[in-house]
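We now fix the convention by which a protein and its fold are recorded. These numbers are not coordinates but entries in a learned vocabulary of local backbone shapes. A record is reproduced here so that you can trace the correspondence yourselves:
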Amino acid sequence: MSTLLLITSAPTSIHAWHALGLAQALQSKNEDFRVFFYQDAVMVANDLQWLPDDQRQLKSEWQKLSIRLPVCVSAALLRGITDQDNAKRHQLHQHNLAAGFELVGLGELADAVQSADRLLQF
């Protein structure tokens, strides 16, 4: 059974952490799953966001999973997050997409929804 985790909650939300916990559990059981970051959840991919050392880092926890981390490009650009290609295309001075995350279009979400047996939104 394949699962799509559609993550829409901001990184400061407990729901975002629950999504990570489920992804970790699915991975540990070798279950088939995909993730997609949309709406405020895209902020997890901002490499310029700073958190104190005594707080868990949601971004780095996702990166440790070593899975594909697609992020909605429109939602990301709206929130000031861009990769090198989009920075050049939109004449921005720098890029700040964290390593391991990838900007993609909503067509990818549509494909993921269509191929998943279940969808869970956080």
